[in-house]
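Table S7 (text form). Paired inputs.
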Amino acid sequence: MSILVVGSVAFDSVETPFGRVEEVLGGSGTYFATSASFFTDVQLVAVVGEDFPEEHLDFLRSRRVDLGGLKTVPGRTFRWRGRYDYDLNEAHTLETQLNVFETFRPELPQGYEDARFVFLANIDPELQLEVLKQVKRPELVACDTMNFWIEGKREALLKTLRHVDILLINEGEARQLAEEPNLVKAARTILAMGPKTLVVKRGEYGVLMFHEHSVFSAPAYPLEEVFDPTGAGDTFGGGFTGYLAATGNLSEASLRKAIVFGSVMASFNVENFSLNRMKTLEYPEIEARFRKFELLTEFEGLS
């Protein structure tokens, strides 16, 4: 089944201890759609300015991403500038230029409203709710958010969460949303807000999933080289949701497997700046790293 994703398409300027890039392809919707496209078809709803180059559109088309919902309007494309120190888990935002994204109002093209799988990337929760009002009968709604919305638009976010099946956020955001320092208690509070499943992204420490009465933990893949963590969370979301949409299986066992596929995709993404690693990635590499992930936590039968 295809996935409808609503998010940002942007230009990123990023500096890490390992290099610097200027105005490369980025945005939550871009990272998610690229990652998910390795598993299933993707419909992208976003906005760009007149300065957005055709080569980036050609790349998304090459990944078979449906761009019927990507609007080009007068003005400049959304831009983000950030820096990472050696603690690659924390991004330091240096500049944000919303540009055309500031007045973005998602309108689903004909046929998109029939989407069975919906991913609400990190955008204003009021816009996330507008999207859900346009979708008819989704089987799964997954959602991402950030501390900016948790603090500035809490009530709107809580309204959105009542319609969400899976929430994907980082550890600090989970504690902030629940107003609870203990992560296990925070998870219980968040699940009471509406989501059936909470996925907590912990960067180099892996992922925790809280689902009904169970907890699942997956490690991060140990890499020798990490160049740029930008978009890792969105790439994780793409692999996670993409696997679920491809299989149509929403059992707990499938959710756990989706967590690992999401982690696999994020591990590839951080190996280069922007989406450069994703542009050369082949599916057999994904399968091979998934098998290596299995071996990371295998302990039975070893002597």
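Next pair, protein 2 of 2.
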Amino acid sequence: MSERKLKAWQQAGLIDADTAARIQAWESTHTRPLGVWAMVGLGALAIGLGIVSVVASNWDAIPGEVRLGLHFALMAGVAALLWWRLSKASGESDYVGDAMLFVAAVLGLTFFAHIGQVYQTSSPLWQPLLVWLAIFSPLLLSFGRGWPVAGLWMAGVLGTAWSHADDYGHLWLLDGRGGEQLPYPVLYWGLIASPPMIVAALAAVMRGHSTRPIFWRLLEQVAIVTILIALSIIFITRGWSGQTDYVTGSSVIQSLFLAGAAGMIYLVRRTRTGEASAAILCVGAVLHFVMAMVRDFRGAVDDPWIPALLFLALWGAVAGGALYAGWRWVFQCAIGVIAVRIIILSFELSDDLLGSGVSLIASGLFAMLVAWASVRISRRYAPRREAEA
């Protein structure tokens, strides 16, 4: 705690002189030698990097079976430590146990890659990812408590779905081609994008039936952020070009999943935050459906206005939901995204240098006005800290 801040609080009447003195005395007796800890951390990092370098330099000289045995022994050791740690864990916060969970899951994931390297297997990426999910999902979802575990598990789900779609549908083309080899392309492309919606609904249900509601709240947030990013990319890329007949039907299925997730969240979380999350997903479902319908009209998505308006409507809904729920930081971020999209739109609508300059000036002034208004609005209607997200 800095002395300057204590003096500022004292001058503002928040604390008196005795309280400031006690705070300063307590801080002085509980300070950590950051310089020493930094040196210890650098030393540990140097030792770790040295060990990795030594192993890497002799990697090819070590037989594959020996490397796999050492890897498996390391996994067994971490599993034993994890078993001992989880039996003693209590409460919502257990950073050590969560870190050990993360390390154990990463070791398991890299073990499959190690097997592929030693035995030169050629299986597609989604198969080992799916096996990893089947083995580690019960462990991560049963004992996870923080962001690292929630993010890792969600990344595994998304990676499995993405690699499967890329393997069967050439997702890297970003235009929907390659689905002709599938027997039911409409159903496939509709279902392959549904995991984030299912995870959001599942996490919302588990928040009220688990002793770790914070973990399920984090998982729900990760799923909703993933959905918003995916919808934003779809609007920015104008519907992945949409040159195939099954894109519209699959988009309708995805919209139904979005609406289902919104309905489930609304039913199980009858709070302002739950209603805000459900409303945002519901608006996203409607906008995604509109994008699917507009895609059928030739030339409609070529006009930058329509995708831009859908993008702005989506993040306008995020801003409105954040304001309703009291998410101050989310509201300001949504307004920032809207301002950036308006500036980009000014480039898309201007064909010459003069028009671009005028549009930039106008959009810059508008962005500054939006930023000023958002700060005023958030100070009045949104709390400084989120009580519930």
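Residues 172-176, 385-389 have pLDDT under 50 and may be disordered.
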